[in-house]
Specification:
The structure is a single chain. The protein is mainly α. The chain has 2 domains: 1-205, no CATH class; 218-416, no CATH class. Helix content is 87%, strand content 0%. It is built from 15 helices and no strands. It has helices spanning 3-60, 63-74, 78-109, 111-115, 117-123, 126-132, 135-140, 145-165, 174-196, 207-241, 244-277, 282-302, 304-310, 318-344, 349-415. α3 (78-109) packs antiparallel against α6. The longest helix has 67 residues, at 349-415. The chain is globular. The mean pLDDT is 86.
Length: 416
Amino acid sequence: MNKEAKILLENFISLSSLQILGMLLPLVTLPYVIRTIGFDNYGLIILASSLVAYFQSVTDYSFRITATRDVAVFRESPKEINLIYSKVLMVKAVFLILSFFFLTIIIIVYPPFYKEKIVFFLTVPMLLGYALFPEWFFQGIEKMKYITILNLSIKVFFTICVFIFIKKETDYWIYPLLQSIGSIGVGIIGQFILIKKYKLKFIWLPIKTIKESIVSNFPIFVNQFMPTLYNNSSSFLLGILTTTNLLGVYDTIKKVVDLAVALLNIVSRVFFPFLNRKKEAFQRYKTLIFLLSVGLTLGCIISYPLVFWYLNITYENALYVLCVLAVGILGLGMYDVFGVNYFVIKREDKIVMMTTIYSSIFGFILAFPLIYFFGIIGAAINLTFCRFLMGGQLFYKWKKYETKCKNESQELIKQY
């Protein structure tokens, strides 16, 4: 096995153990949590998390993609890495402050949120942890083991604390508290590693530089934020337009599919820095993702009897919801292949941005009637439809782009 393959395998193992174990651990506690606090209270917690998720995308401001890409390119230049590090921290700080302000206003002004303000305000601090954790750096230097160790440690801590502190139905507020404590803790430790081990230094950058960074990152930010309009809104609007009980059921089923989505994302993230350096490996990567997407879709559907028994899911339409969500994995696979790991790598960010904008806005608008008239099944249909809409458009644009590049190459050959 050559050096490149060893790095890819190590990163895949590191990230897969993180993501899979990180999502399995909550599934260990989920049956206990649901039986203790009920689907209503669990749905309330998910509703608060869905609200905060909108602002999580804002505070990240696409650095998960752009900063990872920059670190992968300038990893041998300490000066450039320090500039990237400082830029990320300062831009995130700006959007973090704005997010805290707007979240506070929303929670106070909207009566149903204010009624459960303890849950919502205990969920908000998770944003600080998201902003601090330097996942972009570890991914850029292809040292995913740090992401694994830190996140896995905090997941274990969270799992243990759930069984210790949540004993009765009224303890539901402890769940978001533990999530926020864990998120902030892992963020602080991640920053400590950057400063102590990698000797990163914060440099106070001029306001002009920060503005330029915000402008230059905007296309990718839109690309990363817009899917939240349909992805997160399916959960958020389900909780607003129906009941938190249905939202609790929907999220429980969705977590099963999210395991498969996490594995797909792991492969995408592992190959992202590699494909930035080895663009000729794209065809093999495309085939791998296609086969993996089909396998994960079938796996989710086939395993439903065991999953529903374990999670105590008795909702009559649960299988329909699972099947619809599982099929969406195929659309998400196309989006990862032709969006993030093709057009973004080729610096054709705007192609992905415009596709994402149109699809997400359409999905956000479509979510209202689908959820209003069809409830939980409408939420699942909306999520899957939008994933296929984005993935399908990018596939079509990839075909056109490849044909255009091929024709241009042939014209150059004729000229010479």
